[in-house]
Specification:
By secondary structure, the protein is of the alpha+beta class. It contains six helices and eleven strands.
């Protein structure tokens, strides 16, 4: 746990949920996704809250992916408590937990506060990720979950994949795990597999 005059950072507890979701309702123009991930992040661990008088006013989730990398996602500071240095303290806290592993985060290119915060702490832009949305053709297709790597490998042209706000390596063991979790869908027409999608 770290302290400044009034703010502390500690592990999140299930009982923090309501207060966190209260200040994470309208983070972005479209809302926020913290309500959808809170329960799984609590289970995964390394979910931290910044608190004043034990009331949550900040959040972050640190994810370790094997020994190679750590990802920081869901950094939030209550709108009434911004520009007090709390965002910086939350990141510093996560850095101390990550114990000199390289930390990465995905930030939307128009999120100036967050980009400036990261830059002010010495983070560099490593890569750009462009998000495209496609409208499906109105043709009937059937969807099944993938059952083995050979079915999907020809559709995989990248050695990374995006999971929430993390960009993770995608190698055969990762594909196998995703298949086991039934998180890879295949789209077929007349029995011919045409595309894959990860849940
Ligand atoms: C981004 C966010 C976490 C910053 O939290 P914060 O507590 O206000 O940040 P800090 O007070 O620690 O600011 C540290 C530095 O970040 C930069 N920064 C923070 N807010 C900024 C803003 N609105 N505009 C420009 N730079 C900003 C500045 O360099 C600042 O240093 P300074 O105050 O000495 O100029 C907060 O604005 C937030 O919760 N935003 C919505 C959620 C979000 O975008 N999360 C990140 C997703 S990747």
């Amino acid at each position: 746990m770290i302290y400044n005059n009034t703010m502390q950072i500690r592990d999140a507890q299930p009982s923090d949920k309501q207060a966190v979701l209260e200040f994470c309702k309208e983070t972005f123009s479209w809302g926020d996704y913290i309500a959808d991930v809170w329960d799984s992040w609590i289970l995964q661990g390394n979910l931290f809250v910044a608190v004043e008088n034990d009331t949550p006013i900040g959040l972050s989730h640190l994810v370790f992916r094997d020994n190679r990398q750590a990802w920081l996602e869901g950094i939030r500071v209550h709108p009434n408590h911004r520009r007090k240095g709390y965002g910086r303290k939350i990141i510093s806290y996560c850095e101390s937990i990550a114990n000199s592993k390289t930390i990465r985060m995905i930030i939307e290119s128009d999120n100036t506060p967050s980009i400036d915060l990261a830059r002010s702490m010495g983070y560099d832009i490593e890569d750009w990720w462009r998000l495209y949305a496609l409208v499906p053709k109105k043709e009937t297709s059937s969807v099944v979950t993938a059952s083995d790597v050979n079915q999907v490998s020809r559709f995989v042209s990248s050695n990374t994949y995006v999971d929430s706000w993390k960009w993770l390596p995608l190698e055969n063991p990762d594909l196998e795990e995703l298949i086991q979790q039934k998180r890879i869908l295949l789209s077929a027409q007349n029995g011919r597999i045409l595309a894959k999608q990860r849940l």
